Prior knowledge:
By secondary structure, the chain is mainly α. Among the domains are: 65-253; 340-370 and 405-453, no CATH class. The protein has helices at residues 2-64, 69-80, 84-96, 100-135, 139-165, 172-195, 199-218, 224-253, 259-262, 266-298, 306-368, 382-391, 396-405, 408-433. α2 (69-80) runs parallel beside α5. It is flat.
Amino acid sequence: MRSTEDLLLSRMKEKQQQQQQQQQQQQQQQQQQQQQQQQQQQQQQQQQQQQQQQQQQQQQQQQQEPLDLSLLHVQFEVLMSPTRPVMILLTDKHNRGISDSYARTVQQLKEEYRAMRLRLLLPPLKRQLQRLLLHADSFPAAARAVGAQAISACAVERKLFEGFVGSTNPDKELQVIQEGIATATYDALCPAVLACNSVQDLSDIRDTLLLEMEILQKSSDDSAALLQKLYQLIMDIQERLFFRVEVAVEQIRKYTPSPQQLNSSSRRDAAAAATAAATAAAAADRREPAAATALAAAAPRQPHHEHHKQQQQQQQQQQQQQQQQQQQQQQQQQQQQQQQIAGDFLRDSLLQQTYPPVMHALHLVLLLQQRRIGDTREDTSPSAAAAAAAATAAATAAAAAAAAGGDPFDAACSDVLAACLSSLDAAAVNISSARLPLLSSTPENPVVTNVEV
């Protein structure tokens, strides 16, 4: 019996060991599978990262590389060349009035063409415009480059559309394409214009856009969509210019010299005090040996010459009085010098804070008084006149107001001029009330303290 029990126990132990081994093997297999899955996940993540890096590199290259318009239309023109005979045939059938189905087919093809061109053109064009804004040397140069790019893109799209349709007549779908280009141009420039605080840059951009519009108006092509957006951008720039002028004039109006500006600067005070101290010390050094010599010479004769002693005392008192007078004169001279320094500093501060901004504002008014958008010329061609009329539709209200009673643009310029002259008068009053000379005290320019305003 014991032998059978031992056998059973041994077999049970063997089975338990086998089960444990199997469990260990299964665990090892599961661990291996998990490791393999982790490796696969890591590989997938690495592949995704590589793909993202490649996409980023491609995007950066696309942003850095300039846009070649020929690449956007040459290949498309080659691909669309087989459809040109079909379009010509359909257009001919439509012009003859054979059936309305031809007209519907032609219109559907034009709409499909327009959607395809906008989908292919706008993304790279927007990247190109952003690249021009970021990599240009200055904002006016970037605006010139963006305007030239938009005009070139409109011309290329016109040529491509006319080649596809086989006709040079104006078409609604071509106008939609040009509106997309004009809107992309406006969206690229408008935020930069609104963020620009430089009056000179804004004036340069406005002049550039005026020249671009003049070129477009003189051309035979119908560019009403681009003209309208350029006109809208010029109006935004003009509003920004007026805002900057108002800010400058308001700063001039509210300007008040601070106590530090009314007094001489600390460095000049320290220098003047050091000079005065050195002068007084040198004078004291010169007086002490002379006084000691006089006392030494008078000492032996004091017991015998009382009269001389009184004379010497009187002389010493006179010398002391003279020294006190000299010291008072030196102090007065130092005070006058300090007042002169303070006056020069205040005058320079008033002139620097008031006159340059006013002159800048006056210069800006002259720039704004240039010929505005919307004025038609007698020698303008019919197509250019139509484009100008479409571009200046937003100025109708201003023209009506001008006809009713004065041009609001001229009134605004007059207000700016009046504010500038008022600030100049205020500066002159401040200088004259402080009794300061308008010119430095030089031999060539004598000091003039009485200023009439």
